[in-house]
# Entry
Amino acid sequence: MSLTHQAVLSGALAPIERCELTAPDVGYQWLPLFHDFGMIGLMIALCAGFDLHLTSPATFIRHPAQALRHFTEHGVTICTGPNFAYDRLVAAAEADDPSGIDLGRWRIALNGGEQVSPGTVDRFTAVLGRYGLPGTAMTPAYGLAEFCAGISIGAPGSVPATVTVDRRSWWTVVRCARPPVARAGTWSPRAGPCRERRSGSSTRAAPRSRKGMSASWRSAGPAG
# Structure
């Protein structure tokens, strides 16, 4: 499938509105820019107008305690990454017990890209809370590259909630709350030429299948 410029732009603007990001925010990003998570993260900073501090994935993975010191020195307010990244930060804080760390300004720790573990959420909040991290900082999210990253993002300033569902066995998952865009949608097979459909502000070009079919974007109504 192909993505329109409007779709990519919407993928950056929706999280800005959802997370209430403004120019005074300070971002920290170690995700590679060739990955959709990293690319959209960079676009979010450019569109919102806040400073974004970039580092390499290798530096973050090898030296997570340096990230905590960087957050303190520069007053980082938002960081994004998959669940394992927050496990790394917790492990670094427990192993090194870094002195002089102040995470009081870190208000959004966007957790997406892989399954969000309730255990990670609890440990992250408890351990880094000793260094001033707000109890509402952890922000679970769910996204797809086909959707230009964000589909559902937790509300800023709220404590993540967990629900238990029965799917062949009992699983505990973290809720991501409402979508950051005005409408949700579903893909459905449709004969005919490739075309664009709009759902809220998210627009993409529907791809052709091998049999000449195309997929069109169908609105599923207002997000609940």
Residues 184-222 form one domain. Confidence is low (pLDDT under 50) at residues 182-224. The longest strand covers residues 214-222. Residues 5-18 form the longest helix (14 residues).
